[in-house]
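Standup notes
- DV: blocked on the single-chain target, sequence here:
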Amino acid sequence: CLIIDEADRILDPNFEEDMRKILSILPK
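- DV (later): unblocked, structure below
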C-alpha cells in the first residue's frame, strides 16, 4: 500500500513541487 500511495503522490504535480521545496531546504 505504501508503495502505491507513494507512486500516486509522485504522479501528483503538487507533490513534485513540494518535493522540490523540501529538497531545496534539506542540506545536500
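- Follow-up: The radius of gyration is 10 Å.
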